[in-house]
Amino acid sequence: MNKLDDLLLFAEVVEHAGFSSAARHLGIQRSKLSRHIAELENRIGIRLLHRNTRNVVLTPAGEEVYIHAKALKQSAQNAFAVATDLAGDPKGTLRIGCSSTFAQEALIPILELFLREYPKIKIIINTSDQNIDLISTQVDLVFRISSRQLEDSSLVIRPVCELSMILVASKNYMSNKEKITHPDELKTLNFIALGVQQGPISRDFFNKDHDKAWSVKLEPHICCGNMSVLKSAVLQDLGVGILPRYLCTNELISGQLLEVFENESAWSLHDSLVNALIPTRQNLLLATRLFLDFSIPLLREKLQHNLKNPPH
Question: How far is CA 46 from the centre of its chain?
Fold first, then answer.
């Protein structure tokens, strides 16, 4: 049988974008790693990589071989994970991708409980306010919040829960203003938008009494790409913003934040959706499966927590 180790080493070189970085990760000499890849190329009779002083680039043949080398690496990791599971001592590394706000407010409290249960599992959290690509960032699991159903057929989508969204402002900001009864009245207030795009944006509202939707085009007073920053701007009396209810429960209870729609208004925002994304059901890492089963019920409890009688 051909030496499978060389295929695993080849996958490491590709994923670390070079020999030096891969060698440091593997704890071996760069020259030894380069020799293994050269021997692999000689055995199969094709060049896999274009090399230069700074990085490596896959040849067309290398791209094809990498697909199988990556699958081999994943299968090897899963084999060790299964063996560990049978030994009753789960371990390994779980790489999770999500937004920084989700990590801080929802994930970290659950991780404390999870690691108490599985102390030998290591966690790497890759945070970004942009959608994280599972393949290019090499994460095992991504939590993604979206305004509509995801339709990426290349990924396995595991629904977590719906996320209640509300229009809020600080008590100070609203002290000399009337609450609104229709989405169009939002144009009279300073709107703080999530995102970094310039120009007008549209926001959709829903009337539960009349079962109709309404879209409003707004010129944001402030734009920011992070939900926690948006919340801070609202708390600093800079305008009104759309926030997940779970993120501002305490401030609603204390009266720091108010819902901007009148109590009698039937207008509201559509719920967002929280999904867990994994690359494939096949060869699912033990740590990923354990964390999904452990975290999803707790996330539902955390994210769907609504005030029974929210102040207005």
Answer: 38
